Amino acid sequence: MDLLRKLTQTSGTPANEDAIREIVRKELEPLVDEVRQDNLGNLIGVKRGNGGPRVMLAAHMDQIGFMVSHIDDKGFLRINPTGGFDPRTLLNQRVTVHGKKVLSGVIGSKPIHVLSAEERKKALEVKDYFIDLGLPGDKVKELVRVGDMVTWVGDLDEMGDMWCSRAMDDRIGVYIMIEALKKLKDHDCTIYACATVQEEVGIRGATAAAAEIKPEIGIALDVTIANDVPGAQEKDQITIMGGGIGIKHMDGASISSPKLVRHLQDVADAAEISWQPEILPAGGTDAGAIWRVPGGAHVCTLSVPSRYVHSTVEMVHKEDVQGGIDLLAAWLGEAGKVKY
Question: Is 290 helix (H, G, I), strand (E, B) or coil?
Answer without folding.
Answer: helix
